User: Which sequence fits this backbone?
């Protein structure tokens, strides 16, 4: 037989109860006393012997109910005591202490105590494991909700085609910067592609979408940690640059236009669309509404288009130097 084979637990021998010993002895003693008294009074031995047997059995019959009641009350008290300990253990989810259990008894009460201790231990262990699983399940649900919420927040503020931010993200970030009390300038670049519609009409929307993705990759490469680039729709993009003065912002815009002009354009059926850019800067001491900054950058953009397209124009002509 292998070591892992479960051994059958041999049943424990039950000792006879000693409560019946004095009862069984009391009846014959009464009978002997009657026989001795009858012989002493001269009644012979036959009649006293019959009387002794009768008195002995009557004594036994009279003592049996008393002994049963006494033994039943003792067992009932043990059961009540055991029930109270079980109720307390279930309430506090702990094992019963061994000294609280009549484990050393060899009668039915002892067997009951052992069965209760084993059943209670399994029940408590099951409840503990169930609570552990419930906590782990709740934690996993909470983590899943947080991940889903975070993903939805990102998707709600992201342009699906280019991976840049959208108008919602740009407005939120711009309002945060304008509400900041730090006296730092805030600059805005607006750019769009000139004559972009013929690209979609002649070469197809797949080529047009790839052109927009290429512009987005240039903007991502130019971004600092605190900058924000967004696609407003169609071929129009915006870059938010906190802490940069007008001259530095113009240089970044010129760098973006130069990188775009050097991108490969293998399509001979349509001319590469040019890029027009407008730049506006709000000084640190001038906290005008966000719409004002957008309006000035937009005016600079249309000044570039009116000036021949494919160029960078700042809002210097519409505001004082920063």
Assistant:
């Amino acid at each position: 037989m292998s070591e892992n084979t479960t051994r059958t637990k041999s049943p424990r021998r039950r000792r006879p109860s000693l409560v019946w010993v004095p009862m069984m002895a009391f009846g014959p003693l009464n009978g002997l006393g009657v026989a001795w008294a009858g012989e002493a009074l001269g009644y012979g031995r036959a009649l006293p012997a019959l009387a002794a047997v009768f008195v002995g059995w009557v004594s036994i019959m009279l003592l049996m109910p008393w002994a049963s009641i006494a033994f039943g009350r003792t067992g009932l008290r043990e059961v009540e005591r055991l029930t109270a300990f079980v109720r307390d253990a279930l309430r506090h989810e702990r094992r019963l202490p061994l000294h609280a259990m009549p484990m050393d008894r060899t009668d039915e009460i002892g067997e009951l105590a052992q069965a209760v201790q084993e059943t209670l231990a399994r029940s408590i262990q099951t409840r503990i494991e169930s609570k552990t699983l419930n906590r782990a399940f709740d934690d996993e649900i909470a983590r899943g909700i947080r991940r889903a919420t975070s993903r939805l927040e990102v998707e709600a503020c992201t342009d699906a085609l280019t991976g840049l931010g959208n108008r919602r993200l740009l407005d939120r970030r711009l309002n945060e910067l304008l509400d900041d009390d730090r006296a730092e300038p805030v600059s805005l670049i607006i750019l769009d592609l000139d004559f972009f519609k013929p690209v979609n009409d002649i070469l197809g929307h797949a080529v047009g979408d790839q052109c927009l993705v290429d512009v987005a990759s240039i903007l991502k490469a130019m971004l600092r940690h605190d900058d924000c680039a967004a696609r407003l729709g169609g071929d129009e993009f915006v870059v938010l640059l906190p802490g940069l003065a007008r001259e530095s912002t113009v240089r970044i815009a010129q760098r973006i236009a130069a990188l775009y002009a050097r991108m490969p354009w293998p399509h001979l059926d349509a001319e590469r669309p040019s890029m027009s850019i407008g730049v506006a800067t709000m000084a640190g001491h001038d906290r005008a509404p966000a719409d004002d900054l957008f309006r000035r950058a937009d005016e600079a953009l249309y000044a570039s288009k009116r000036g021949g397209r494919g160029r960078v124009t700042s809002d210097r002509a519409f505001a004082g130097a920063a």
About this structure: The chain has a mean pLDDT of 77. The first helix runs from residue 20 to 40. The two ends are 94 Å apart (CA to CA). The CA atoms of residues 15 and 120 lie 26 Å apart.
